[in-house]
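[scheduler] slot 2 assigned
[scheduler] job type: sequence-to-structure, two independent chains
[scheduler] chain ordering preserved from manifest
[runner] begin chain α
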Amino acid sequence: MKKLEIGNFLVRDIVFGEKTAYEGGILTVNREEATKAINPLGKLKNIELHIVHPGDSVRICPVKGAVEPRFRPDGRALFPGYTGPVTSCGEGTLHAMKGIAVLVCGRYSSMGDGILDMSGPGADYSYHSTTTNLVIFAERTNEKELDYTLREEDEFRISAHYMAEYLGKTLAGREPDRWECYDLDEGSQQAQEKKLPRVGYVMTVISQLAKGINDLFLGRDCNNMMPLLVHPQEILDGFLLGGMGLAGQALTTYDAQNHPMIKRLCQEHGKTIDFAGVILSPADVSDSMKLRNAISATQIAECLKLDGAFVQEWGGGSNVDVDTFYLLSHLEDKGIKTVGIMDEHIGKVYTDPKADAIVSVGETSTIIELPPMDKVIGDDESLVRDYYYGAWSTHTTLGPSLRPDHSVIINTYALACGGNPAAQLKRAVKEY
């Protein structure tokens, strides 16, 4: 029997103080101790910690990752295989800090990094403008390959996960404000008795990049993985970790921990559907591998005897669009009804008439102007110096993305989580 109980603590604020502790809804952080906890191997330097709140006149760029602080009372690593030994997950008791997030940023952008504004028009595009954030700024001690558009920068990613684990330990011995309980075994009998439709959730994962940049499962890089069947509760419990970057279509560890669609499907299990599981299907760069993955993922869906499937594009852009539509097409060919979940990015790279039910989670091709902020965490010069999706050093009509007064003009793809396929959004879609 696999039961996951998440005890939620409603955090009202984060402050710096002499001792890292949680009391009365306030998380106090000792800067020096926290800095040591996130940098055990000394691979980062010039580390700064900042606290930002919704509505602050703050711009964070380049943002590289987001994680929710949590704690396991039984002592297991919060992120098995990454911050500690490989163990099972998706069961037992977990404590979570709600309303806050750990963000990490640097001085130099790597392809896929994003921009987060805590106020102004840019704030409307990112869920993390609504959370109180502990922001890590750091530089690598061995900074290299700065002329590359895409770099392996796991020092940043793991620092955010270490911080989430460090902060979560302050919850030891405390009673949560409320509980979430997930137990698919409990609803399975009702689902069978009612003969409810069997539904699966298929997710593309970023695996096509160099090792150290892709998404991780149980701490392992998704590079060269094959489609994988996963228990839904594992996704909510540290099994899947986001890859590098926080651009418009990127998904983070925070998104996996709080995945709205998977939570809702778990809630509907035994009531309106028979939720059969999650299939992780890797993206790839070669057309033959895209087809192999789509065929293999579809075979798993057939073994599960699915009647329908949601197909979510994790990450995105023209490359992963193809993987997503191959999945939709192959599942439909086997009689499995599909609904795609993805954002809109202008262009017709690959479409299929069988993919006739698509939910849009936003559009990431709009030019947007952002006013200057009173404070920048990171380096906004990176917008014209380094590589971003959706920013540029020069433009014949618009000029550079960073203006002399530090206002910004960019494509919305550059906004952190601006087109979040997990539907971790501030916006809603209306049909007219």
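[runner] end chain α
[runner] begin chain β
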Amino acid sequence: MKLASGAHEFTTPSGAVLSYYVTGHGPHVLVNVAPGWGAASVLYQNTFTFLNDLFTFVHLEVRGTRRSTFPPDLRDMSSWHMAEDVESLREYFGFDTLDVAGHSNGGCIAQWFAIRYPTRARRLVLLGAQLNGASAIAAPATKAILDARPDQDCVRAYRNYDPGSLQTDDEYAAALGSFLPLYVAKPERDFATLNAAFTNTPQLACSKAQANAESQHLDEIDRIASIKARTLVIVGKEDFICPVPVSKRIAAGIRRSSLSVIGDAGHFTWIEQPQSFRDILATFYSAT
């Protein structure tokens, strides 16, 4: 039972092992691509539960993450390459097309999948998505949001973050934790929920490998116009890391797209404004 609840893994024709986790029992199968920098899918498994009646989630952990194997050549750890893992999952299931969701870097990978395999992506759900090549668009909004934050200790920790100095997964987790409150608009309301859901230790090896490989393919911003999938773009108004101008650029570039900006929310819109998030997602699915 490939879609039975719980943990699964399969071997691709090239010999790679990919793992995925099935949660929910809803009528729509939605592949959620975990970010490629080592965060894994546990956070999403723990926080998408209020959508379990709408979706059967397939949380794909891309190459290098937990039980999914690293490629022999670490140059193949870019987001562009990770789109191949989504295609491998589609082939494994035997589906003609997939509905694919992605948050942050997972959204970047989802877009690459729709670019590289345009006939295989039916719907995209992009949540605070990263867009390779959009750093100049993001920078002014990121600065403005951080400058206005009251928690300037976290802002300083973020601006002083030096991933190259980290040696262990625990150091990586501690560094991320020092500025994690910035990812929600109101830490006093939502940070405890976010922190409690992030139960696994992120993998530094994934972060370093992806960072070293990513520069091979930074033209995503120039290629999203080729995406054929019907696309929903959701972003929090106070998202500093993948700010509103990036999502606006994504929505402007993808022909069959709609954009929803959720107020009083940062990078984790579904945790911060769950009812608004659910309503937007349900409306998108009812119209297709």
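[runner] end chain β
[qc] chain β: The beta strands are 6-11, 17-24, 28-33, 55-61, 98-103, 121-127, 230-236, 257-262.
[scheduler] slot 2 released
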